[in-house]
Amino acid sequence: MTQSFVTAFAARAAAAPSVPALIWENQAIGYGELYAMACRARAQVTAAALDTEGPVGLRVRKSPEAVALVLGCLMAGRSFLLPSHELPDIPLKELYHQAGCRQIFGTVDGPMIDAVVHPAAGWTGAAPQQEQPAPVDPDAIGFMLTTSGSTGVPKIVPISYGAVTRFAAWAAETFGITNGTRVLNYAPLNFDLCLLDVWSTLAYGGTVVMVDPDRGTSETYLRELVTGHGVQVVQGVPLLFQLLVEAAGGEPLDGPEHLVFAGESFPARLLDDLAPVFPEARWYNNYGCTETNNSFLHEVDRDGPVTAPLPIGRPLPGVNWLLVDGDGRALTGPGQGELLVNTPFQTTGYLNSPNEEKFGPHPDGDPGLLYYRSGDIATRHEDGSLSVLGRRDFLVKVRGFQVSTQSVEGILLDHPAVAEAAVVALPDPVAGHRLHAQLRLTEPGSVGVLTLRQYCAQRTVRAAVPAVFELVTTALPRTSTGKVDRTRIKQSLLEQ
């Protein structure tokens, strides 16, 4: 047994109950109050759960009550599946069944909810009594998150208490999260970014400034949260930083000390726009995925030229990695190949799903380590640092040439008139694939298709120039985590 991040949260609540743990709708919720809510949620889950050993399912929207429910499950030593609440009922039912969840809990009534948890009442304002979290083996599963499901039903990713505890220690040390540090939480609770935004922050005494998902694209709202609550750490996908840049109007935003880029490659133009808005902040490019959590970190040298794509940098302490070529052989020097990663924070494999394709030992036979095949094609440079070229999934053949649709998107996003871009590959009987670019301009009519085609042709091979440039006036569809939903765009085009 060992002290987990949940025990650390309980100790913070006992030592400083009045310190804000969460900021939600401009209201502060102290550590004592949140702890009391978590204890109440723990009691309700324990009383209502039919199976005292198996996992429970959660279906929640982001809220303090949802945070308390997660903490309550962790304090009870219960593993839980936390998928996106936006998933349709059919894949949700399949996921809950696959995980072995016999009962589904939520903070509000709704489809498939077996028991509604009401954790808000019951705090007296005094220091919380020491109702200790249940002792757990560090290898025991706590969180069960899911992959994005871009190729079908999401896969279940179980994460141990020890993995989250080790990650929280790294995150707190790296980004200076301690008593009173204000950390913005933009991602939904089911997203792995919350392991830093929420759970590491609460374990080390910081304050989570929670973004209401219903207002997550409001520039004014986001600016008020960051400046009004003195946010010091901001982690998010490019969309979040684009919104903050637009909200600032070129003026500096006071407060943030650490900007952590995650989720997608940052466009060069956005990096340029960030400089006057966050002149004093340290910038990091954070590389990882749900299966491994953070693997690499690159701190941007603000005194030198900043160019995109940013390198992913060097491995975190305890991370092992290698590149393999097309024949599965490990590269020993500079070169290009698929990135395989082993981290102290990773899952041991998908739950009740085939793992052989994504998890395995070192291809040259080094024993004892389980590597995750990331699907990312990376380049190791002479100095040992890494850059990701794009996902293997996004590499397609067009007229015999291998093309990365992500690279084409990056070229288009560098054009000053392009606000959003998605490039998808559609089947073509002659060329193999044809590229379709869907674009939203910063100002409708500010540039024409011919100009955009010429712009691409000057920067890439002919096969990588999209066959179709579709200009739209509404925002491109996004996933629940803020990434452009290329799957939905492609499906819509195939149905036309």
Automatic annotation (TrEMBL):
Designated name of the protein: Fatty acid-CoA ligase
Coiled-coil stretches noted in the UniProt entry, renumbered to this chain: none
UniProt source species: Streptomyces davaonensis (strain DSM 101723 / JCM 4913 / KCC S-0913 / 768)
Gene Ontology CC: one annotated term: cytoplasm
UniProt cross-references to PANTHER family, sorted A to Z: FATTY ACID SYNTHASE (PTHR45527:SF1), NONRIBOSOMAL PEPTIDE SYNTHETASE (PTHR45527)
Mitochondrion recorded as keyword: no
Keyword Ligase listed: yes
GO biological process: amino acid activation for nonribosomal peptide biosynthetic process; secondary metabolite biosynthetic process
A Pfam family per the record: AMP-binding
Domain of life: Bacteria
Residue span, AMP-dependent synthetase/ligase domain: 9-351
Keyword list, A-Z: Ligase
InterPro entries, sorted: AMP-bd_C (IPR025110), AMP-bd_C_sf (IPR045851), AMP-binding_CS (IPR020845), AMP-dep_synth/lig_dom (IPR000873), ANL_N_sf (IPR042099)
Gene Ontology MF annotations: ligase activity; phosphopantetheine binding
Ranges where the AMP-binding enzyme C-terminal domain occurs: 408-483
Gene3D superfamilies: 3.30.300.30, N-terminal domain of ligase-like
SUPFAM superfamilies (UniProt xref): Acetyl-CoA synthetase-like (SSF56801)
